[in-house]
Design a protein that fits this description.
- Chain A: One of its GO terms (molecular function) is oxidoreductase activity.
- The complex is a heterotrimer of chains A (759), B (152) and C (339).
- Chain A is an alpha+beta fold and 759 residues long.
- Chain A is 25% helix and 25% strand.
- In chain A, the strands form eight sheets. Chain A has a seven-stranded mixed beta sheet with strand order 3-5-1-13-10-11-12, sandwiched between helices.
- In chain A, a hairpin with a 2-residue loop joins strand 10 and strand 11.
- Chain A starts with 20 loop residues before the first helix and ends with a helix.
- By secondary structure, chain B is of the alpha+beta class.
- In chain B, helix 2 packs antiparallel against helix 5.
- With 339 residues, chain C is an alpha+beta fold.
- Helix content of chain C is 28%, strand content 20%.
- In chain C, helix 5 runs antiparallel to helix 9.
- The mean pLDDT of chain C is 96.
- Classes of the chains: A alpha+beta (759), B alpha+beta (152), C alpha+beta (339).
- Chains in contact: A-B, A-C, B-C.
- Chains A and B meet through helix 1, helix 3 and helix 16 of A and helix 1, helix 2, helix 3, helix 4 and helix 5 of B.
- Bound molecules: flavin-adenine dinucleotide, iron/sulfur cluster and FE2/S2 (inorganic) cluster (FES) (2 copies).
- Flavin-adenine dinucleotide binds next to strand 2, helix 2, helix 6, helix 7 and strand 8 of chain C.
């Protein structure tokens, strides 16, 4: 076993290699833009270069005259097509080709379709437009930006949570801080480019597009195109990184479908990295004001978190992380308020831990500052404020292993070697700093369906319209089926990423493993039940075992007393060749319509802070060491340790990889990532991977992930908490804490760069 | 142009990049496009044994050269290249999209003699972004494959 | 991308003839024809629509062996124009005689790009100013007279030295800093014959004509770069400071070579990257060091001299202290080199 495959501890599954690993290392895994399509034409987008105004004239003649150009779909060509809807499945309500209004920079103004990519691209470059321009509002401080309370604007953010009398407690607190923090605009930038390939066969439409929500997209695309959803199929077998960016469908999908219908042949549109910054979603910039009051003993008596978030002019996209930060510690009183600021920008959307990344960053940076104000060790400060119940509704946590995580991570990191005095640690020309922070992510699950077939020769096929975005869900689904049906994992084939399969919820919110495994588990139980009844039945090979508990292993049905029957013999007794079971899973507390909504592409999430009896979160503790050159002040992170507890770990290999990837994302958030906005024009300026920096290999040295055992039967039947988004929560605050420790500079605005430390 | 040992006569537009030629005209879609501007490394292939970015090379410039892509790595009996196996063993990817480029680059890194230490590997593999951030596992995979390739 | 004619000449004079015959005696422009070597800069800008040549002349089939050779003799390293960055960076003798040259290449771009990119192409790379790269912005360098979007826009990566009212774009290359520090000379061949250009004269300050970037005519091909070296250039290094550890352009860099007599500086060569509009020789800093004991305070005085004329804008003020500290660190580290 190597580092990538940690030995499973209690309640952890084996580090089985990914079932699709062979395809991925040979180039055979078919990402949507790889799938061969006969007679395909190429589409390239033309986009606006102003952020606000109206198109007064669109000049298409030059492009039309270009050799190889087949067609141009532009404003006014969407007759009979409904505008997109903003919501779970739709990225924005803006229908760029439905009217002439420009809502944001880089808005689609045309799609050029040509015989070759080169012709389409040159055609798009030749398109120009005249605009009646208005001065756009770029962000928070721009004239014309409109602010409103966020509560109630989104089904995911119903209210500002509060508890007790904050003002009174704060005013009398012995020690307090009142600070503002901010996070910049960020783009997911998965390495796979966004793309849509549309093919019509009669009135049937097939779309190849990387998607985290094939079922939702099928329904939404059919609605826009005014066709029956049974005629729409979304295919997305492999996804080249998602991080939320492929959750909501954008306006492009319908536009490419319309183009394919017009030219009567398949059209493939691969969006350039540059255009993706404006035509996909992103994480908008946030601001925070945090006030914390505590007694001299370090017990927090008052906590207030106010957040401001940017969104587009028409769509109220909210992240609202205060429901998590407001429940994090044992605050005596809580006040929270989230406001939306509408600006002339494309609509933001989910990006890896949408609420927690910015909000917990602010909270944890403030916690570190508070620990300094109290003269207290930051770990000890968190220990003192560890709650028995969450402070808002007084509900218990279904499980909460935070202190355990802190203990294990601190030990592995060597926290006790840290000299708490600022600037006290040095290695030659390098200042050394150590810091820590808490990670939290709500544990949810959603309804999900799966079909499992077992044949007499022990082959298993699992079908589920979920999505392999790199999390390893295909692998853990196979593992779950293999374990329950007692066959080797090599005998399990898993089909995913196709809206023709049983519906699964959007692969977001870290719900996939829990939801998919619960559905697969349920289908497997049904298969087992049939086999057991037959095996123990009068004509069965285990006749007479009565009500004894049966199980499946090594392609056999076995009894507690050690009797066993080969699968083939049980099937023979049943006189059938295969058992196929279709199961629908709905989490506890689901509404009566939950399953209906699943088929309608509107998954209902349960868990987190929504449940009646308890709140459900996964926790972790992260420690980082930074080194800052004493002359030139560049900041490097040679070492990080994270300990995480997330219920049952299905596969220690994929779990570790995800958490490690998350922590490295955290480094990017802390030190590198920011989409720069030209405030005069409300335009993004660094729309590529040369200027939008993400960590490279050389930035990452030792990353140690500790999986802390945790058993939680309350969360869902599989006992699984999601961990895909947990790892990158808190990291940036841990870095800020370490930078403070090294330099005495408290940096509150991300990313932390040389600029902040050089003077 | 020879691609993975086979000769192709493609008759392409001068503007076609080597990357698009491979993907759209030869049907070898293992090589990926992540930026099309030399900023990510997903399109890495070997030309005459050296790792290069296929997105920044016009296909016409490669007439007469030998191109190796990820599809050309496995041996005739379909057994994996040690680097491919090492990537599996060390879970050196998540989504897998950057992986063909990482693997081609890793092979180049070793043959150039830049895989002497972990720090060297990190530096000389920094032209391949992995947004899933499998970096530590990629380094481990290269160390494993390097030693196996040396032994072989 | 505009369609183009593709040519593959097999010797230098054929290449020059191809670009000279093209425009009926009229001096060709970059829109008429451009050479291509590695393509890592030009293909990028063609895809972006910034460069739109009608004809490309590929230099990779030129048969003159010297174009691909590194020859070391009589105190000169002669790099053929088509030598790849990676090869030059890895050459043991280059590293030995002049670590500065090898380091400036090693820390540039990525291994793949260094395998593709030629040394001549490298020194001729164009700025990465974001507003220059995107054709929808006004930019005096791309479209003379259209204005400069960076001046009042986002200019964190822009230059503080050598700027003009028309353009503040940084010259981003690394190798050129080593070349200018060491007084390199470039061999050029064009329709009017061959000539040599001192490296310091190759790049042009933006002034009123930021679109004119070099002293080369469109028909002139660089055939070699000659770098004089001596015993003391072993004491040289390239320090590059960037936002991430690798695969990033310099926020500030310093190319330093020191001729030391014990603790005292006999002669210093200093160039600065990431902070200026062209490869930047810091002569005032060099002068400030001559005859001095090189300690922290002498280094700081030199750094102050190097940036005395700096003109920062809104987002790149940090480049002044950063540039100074980079130079100080480079001087101290070079002083302490064991050679
Ligand atoms: C993502 C990325 C990161 C990079 N990072 C760095 C970095 O950190 N540091 C750095 O220094 N560089 C960096 N570069 C730039 C890279 O080094 C240059 O693109 C490369 O060196 C150019 O060489 P080339 O042979 O590919 O030139 P080409 O693209 O072929 O040509 C560039 C220009 O030079 C002209 N030309 C080429 N050869 C000749 C000749 N012999 N005579 C006359 N004209 C000629 C061409 O006409 C063209 O105008 C980076 C590039 C990219 C894409
Ligand atoms: S700085 Fe120079 S290159 Fe950049 S926009 Fe201004 S004129 Fe153009
Ligand atoms: S696609 Fe070639 S480097 Fe990104
Ligand atoms: S594995 Fe997803 S980008 Fe590297």
């Amino acid at each position: 076993m190597n580092q990538a495959a940690p030995a499973p501890k209690e309640n952890m599954g084996n580090p089985i290699p990914r079932v699709d690993a062979g395809l991925k290392v040979t180039g055979q895994a078919g990402y949507p833009a790889d799938l061969a399509v006969a007679n395909v034409a190429y589409g390239v987008l033309a986009t606006s270069n102003i952020a606000k105004g109206r198109i007064s004239a669109l000049r298409l003649d030059k492009a039309r005259a270009m050799p190889g150009v087949l067609d141009i779909v532009s404003v006014g060509d969407m007759d009979g097509v409904d505008k997109p809807k903003f919501g779970n499945t739709g990225a924005s309500s803006i229908g760029p080709l439905h009217d002439r209004t420009i809502f944001h920079d880089g808005q689609i103004i045309a799609l050029v379709v040509a015989e070759t990519f080169e012709a389409a691209e040159e055609g798009a470059m030749q398109i120009s437009a005249d605009y009646t321009q208005e001065t756009p509002s770029a962000s928070f401080d721009s004239a014309g930006a409109e602010m409103e309370p966020a509560a109630g604007k989104s089904p995911l953010f119903k209210e500002d949570v509060n508890a007790g009398d904050f003002e009174a407690a704060y005013s009398t607190a012995a020690v307090k801080i009142d600070q503002t923090y901010s996070t910049p605009t960020q783009h997911h930038n998965p390495i796979e480019l966004f793309s849509t390939t549309a093919m019509w066969q009669g009135d049937k439409l097939t779309i190849y597009e990387p998607s985290q929500n094939v079922t939702g997209w099928k329904i939404e695309l059919a609605r826009q195109l005014n066709i029956d959803p049974v005629n729409v199929r979304i295919v997305s077998p492999y996804i080249g990184g998602a991080f939320g960016s492929k959750g909501p469908m954008t306006a492009r999908t319908a536009i490419v479908a319309v183009a394919a219908r017009r030219v009567r042949r398949p059209v493939r549109c691969v969006v350039s990295r540059m255009q993706a910054f404006n035509t996909q979603t992103y994480r908008a910039e946030t601001r925070h004001r945090i006030r914390i009051g505590a007694g001299k003993d370090g017990r927090i008596t008052a906590f207030a978190h106010e957040g401001w978030e940017v969104t587009s002019r028409p769509d109220p996209y909210v992240v609202g992380g205060t429901s998590a930060t407001g429940r994090m510690y044992d605050y005596g009183s809580v006040l929270t308020r989230v406001s939306l600021v509408h600006a002339d920008r494309n609509t933001p959307g989910y990006m890896r831990s949408p609420p927690e990344t910015p909000y917990v960053y602010a909270l944890e940076n403030a916690m570190d500052e508070m620990a300094v104000a109290l003269g207290m060790d930051p770990v000890q400060f968190r220990r003192i404020n560890e709650p028995q119940k969450e402070p808002i509704g007084g509900k218990p946590f279904s499980s909460r292993s935070l202190i355990n995580c802190y203990d294990q991570a601190a030990e592995a990191f060597g926290w006790s070697t840290r000299d708490p005095a600022v600037g006290s640690m040095r290695d030659g020309d390098w200042l050394v700093g150590m810091g820590c922070a808490t990670a939290i992510y709500p544990t949810a699950a959603a309804p999900c369906a799966a079909r499992v077939r077992l044949t007499a020769d022990g082959q298993v096929r699992v079908q589920c319209g979920s999505h392999e975005i790199g999390t390893g869900v295909r692998t853990v689904a196979a593992q779950m089926a293999a374990e329950r049906l007692g066959v080797d994992i090599d005998k399990v084939a898993v089909e995913m990423g196709d809206s023709a399969l049983p519906p699964a919820p959007v692969s977001g919110g870290s719900i996939s493993t829990a939801s998919v495994c619960s559905a697969v588990l349920k289908a497997c139980e049904a298969v087992r039940e049939k086999l057991f009844v037959a095996a123990a039945g009068n004509d069965g090979p285990l006749a007479g075992s009565g009500n004894a508990k049966l199980d499946m292993t090594n392609e056999k049905v076995v009894t507690e007393t050690g009797k066993s029957a080969k699968l083939a013999d049980v099937f023979k007794a049943m006189q059938i060749g295969a058992i196929e079971e279709y199961a629908e899973f709905a989490p506890n507390g689901s509404s009566p319509e939950a399953l209906k909504k699943l088929y309608a592409g509107q998954a209902e999430f349960h868990g987190g802070d929504q449940d009646k009896d308890s709140v459900k979160y996964a926790f972790g503790a992260e420690f980082v060491e930074v080194r800052i050159n004493s002359y030139t002040r560049e900041i490097r992170v040679p070492r990080m340790v994270g300990a995480f507890a997330a219920g049952r770990i299905m596969n220690t290999r994929t779990a570790r990889s995800q958490l490690m990837g998350g922590m490295i994302w955290g480094i990017g958030q802390a030190l590198h990532e920011a989409t720069e906005i030209d405030q005069r024009h409300a335009r993004y300026v660094n729309r590529d991977l040369q200027d939008y920096l993400v960590p490279v290999n050389a930035d990452i040295k030792a990353v140690d992930v500790i999986l802390v055992p945790e058993v939680d039967h309350e969360v869902n039947p599989a006992g699984v908490k999601g961990l895909g988004e947990l790892g990158n929560v808190g990291t940036a605050a841990a870095v800020a804490s370490a930078v403070y420790h090294a330099t005495g500079r408290r940096i509150r605005d991300l990313p932390i760069r040389i600029d902040d430390l050089i003077t | 142009m020879r691609i993975n040992g086979q000769v192709y006569n493609l008759g392409l537009d001068n503007r076609t990049s080597l990357l698009d030629a491979l993907r759209d005209h030869v049907g070898l879609t293992g090589t990926k496009k992540g930026c099309d501007h030399g900023q990510c490394g997903a399109c890495t292939v070997l030309i005459d044994g050296k790792r290069v970015l296929s997105c920044l090379s016009f296909a016409v410039m490669n007439e007469g050269r030998e191109v190796t892509t990820v599809e050309g790595l496995a041996s005739a009996d379909d057994s994996l290249h040690p680097m491919q196996q090492a990537f599996i063993d060390n879970d050196a990817f998540q989504c897998g999209y950057c992986t063909p480029g990482q693997i081609m680059s890793a092979i180049g890194c070793i043959s150039e003699g830049h895989a002497g230490s972990e720090d060297d590997i990190r530096e000389y593999m920094s032209g391949n972004l992995c947004r899933c951030a499998a970096y530590p596992n990629i380094v481990a995979a290269i160390l494993q494959a390097r030693d196996e390739m040396r032994r072989a | 991308m505009r369609p183009f004619v593709f040519e593959r000449p097999t010797n230098i004079s054929a290449a020059v003839a191809l670009v000279s015959s093209f425009a009926d005696g009229r001096a060709p422009t970059q829109a008429d024809v451009q050479f291509i070597a590695g393509g890592t800069n030009l293909a990028d800008y063609m895809k972006l629509g910034v460069a739109r040549p009608r004809r490309l002349v590929d230099l990779n089939d030129l048969s003159e062996p010297a174009l691909r050779q590194i020859r070391i003799s009589d105190g000169t390293i002669r790099f053929g124009a088509l030598v790849r960055m990676g090869e030059a960076a890895d050459r043991g003798d280059v590293k030995r005689h002049c670590p500065l040259l090898a380091e400036s290449l090693k820390f540039a771009a990525s291994a793949q790009i260094r395998n593709m990119a030629s040394l001549a192409g490298n020194v001729l790379q164009r700025t990465r100013c974001e507003y220059f790269r995107e054709t929808s912005w006004p930019c005096n360098k791309r479209v003379p007279g259209s204005g400069c979007a960076a001046m009042e826009g986002l200019n964190r990566q822009h230059a503080v030295l050598g700027t003009s009212d028309a353009c503040i774009a940084t010259y981003h290359g690394d190798f050129a800093q080593a070349l200018i520090a060491l007084d390199a000379v470039v061999d050029v061949e064009g329709r009017h014959g061959t000539r040599q250009i001192r490296f310091a004269k190759l790049h042009q300050l933006p002034g009123d004509t930021p679109d004119v970037e070099t002293d080369l005519a469109a028909d002139e091909v660089i055939t070699a770069i000659n770098v004089p070296f001596s015993e003391w250039s072993r004491r040289s290094r390239y320090l590059k400071i960037r936002d991430r550890e690798s695969y990033a352009f310099a926020l500030a860099s310093a190319a330093v070579a020191l001729d030391m007599d014990g603790d005292t500086v006999r002669q210093a060569r200093i160039a600065l990257g990431g902070v200026a509009t062209v490869p930047w020789r810091a002569r005032l800093a060099e002068e400030a060091l001559v005859g001095k004991r090189l300690d922290q305070s002498a280094a700081e005085t030199a750094a102050d001299a190097a940036f005395a004329e700096a003109k920062p804008r809104r987002h790149n003020e940090f480049k002044v202290p950063l540039g100074k500290r980079t130079l100080v660190r480079a001087l101290i580290e070079t002083r302490d080199m064991k050679v």
